[in-house]
Amino acid sequence: MIQLPKSLQPIHTFEEAGVWYVAHLQRGDVLKIDPLTADILTLCSTTDSAGIVKKLADTYTEGEILESLKNLSGDMEEFLFEPEDIPAFRRKITQSRLRIFIPHGFMKYREVLGPTVNAGIYNLLVTLTKYADVFVEADNNPTVMEQREQLMALGIEFVSDLFEANKNTPVHAANRSIIEECDGILTLSPHPHEELNYFRHNTIPVISRVFSDRNLRAATINKVLSHHSLHRSFDVVCPDTPWISEELETVTGAHFNGLTTIPSGVDTEVYSPQNRQKAREVVASIVEEESILQMPCVGFINGFQPQNNLRMIEELAVLHKDLAFIILDPILSRHHSQKPRNVFYIDLQSPEDTLALSWIYSACEFVIFPSVIGTPFSMVLEALACGVPALALAPTRLSEDLRGCIKSVPITRETTTGKFVIPTAAVSEEINALLRAPKQRATLSRKAREIASNYSWDQTAREIIQLFTALNEKKMQKAVPTYPDVAFSPYYNKAENVVKSGALQFDGFFQHRVEEGLAQTLLAEHTPEEVGVVLRYILKDAEKADEVLSTLIS
Q: Considering Cα of 523, then 527, then 528, then 533, what sign does the dihedral take?
């Protein structure tokens, strides 16, 4: 018989549809157990065998308990308990690490996410495993299954799909049971509404990551708006780029609480200054144009929609015929073959181009980028890490640390179309000023490298861990918060460039009425008495109004 007490592995016992299971959170395995074994597992890490028999004597016979204890030996023992040769201090460290659950949505939308965002997600996941136990939601989606081996090779664990063991259990219910032992949920999907259920059916803090990517601008705005409508004090929307918050407030005209910017990191060993002439040779070979070897190069990290910047690029190319403009933009490189002779597009989708990025940045005297939702901050950091100064086309003021190595030209946005108004003449003047000041560029270059060194993936991971720790101190004590399946939330209409009001439908486990969604939304800022007045006016039925209100505040 196994000797107790004994330290448990990272396991979680739970009951689903009348059947008990134990899940090994690191292996991603789930075993069916009986209720007696489940009761024993709640005691065996602190109580010896005699104590367990005594504590469970009111529910089971001594023979049943001893037989169940005997069955914990062998393979079951290896699954449930820490090996004896693991030092006590190591077990303590493992148990003290946060457990972070990550829904699989980011893998389903891999084709939608740009290569820079995809690379950032994987860098973040790998680095997080150094500071926390990371578990990715498993799913039978073919796209997700293809990426499992790659993620597991990076040190990422998968939780099992319970429905593989119990065909009658919905996958969302299985994952909901498994994550109850986690300390936080990190959502990475670009879809505005896909992961809302993780806010609704547990008291686990949620950090919702939103990305600066040109293809995701509307999705990013709507993800912030919809998640913000849930009003949970222990959740945070976490942009990966410092200018997302400012532009959101400009577009929506509202200030958002619960937005915490945690920038992506940069590997300063991969991205470092290269010999400029040799770097030009690399760029010349990529674009197949030898004239670049004789011309100063200026890079352009594009985050604008094509119609917003094509004219600007053409005008700058005419004004600066002695410069080579290196445009880092896969869309423009494919669809705009007719261009000025001194403009060269580089398609960042190919592995060769992304591997050569350190050389591409280093070939430039400086890079130009718009500080808008659409420009990945990670690419700006990569250029800075290569010691390349930058010129920002900025609708809002840059943060103080970035102003140390980045010059800026203010730009505005048309209120009706949402297109940016780019003062080409002012940009041209700033280009000339930088080209005429080699000493200033050298100073900016040195500062750029210094500033980039402050943005590491380790720092990003540590900030997320610290944020989860702080959010856990704020989380609700109620077991399952009451949320309706319908809530009222603003949404961004991309075609009209306006924010409108609408009803938000959640895919939940319970069905609720529209009036409950309205009441839930109003309760965030009004008293139950005030909400009751509104419901009685709308429903024309005081009894029904009181019933709706009681379901939400009971």
A: negative
- Per DSSP, 145 falls in state H
- The three-class DSSP label of residue 274 is coil
Which residues, including other chains, have CB under 8 Å from residue 302's CB and lie 6 or more apart? Answer: 214, 309, 327, 328, 329, 332, 369, 370, 375
Backbone angles phi and psi of 417, in degrees to 5:
-95, -20
CA distances from 489 to 106, 212, 229, 498, 505 (A): 24, 22, 6, 14, 10
Residue carrying structure tokens 């560029």: 441
Sequence length of the chain is 554
Cα 215 to Cα 186, 190, 253, 490, 495, distances in angstroms: 21, 10, 22, 21, 14
CA 343 to the chain's CA centroid: 34
What is the SS3 assignment for 93-133?
HHHHCEEEEECCHHHHCCCCCCHHHHHHHHHHHHHHCCCEE
Element (H, E) at 346: strand 343-346
How far apart are the C-alpha atoms of 395 and 410, rounded to whole Å?
Answer: 6
Distances (CA, A) of 411 to 102, 250, 369: 38, 13, 12
pTM (two decimals): 0.73
pLDDT mean for each 10 residues of the chain (554 residues) = 79 82 75 90 84 89 88 81 55 63 82 81 89 77 63 61 39 52 87 73 83 85 80 84 82 74 92 94 90 92 78 90 89 64 81 78 95 90 96 88 90 80 93 94 94 94 94 66 62 77 56 69 81 87 86 70
The residue assigned the tokens 């090996």 is 83
Whether the link from the prior residue into 5 is cis, omega within 30° of 0, is yes
DSSP reduced 3-state for 391: strand
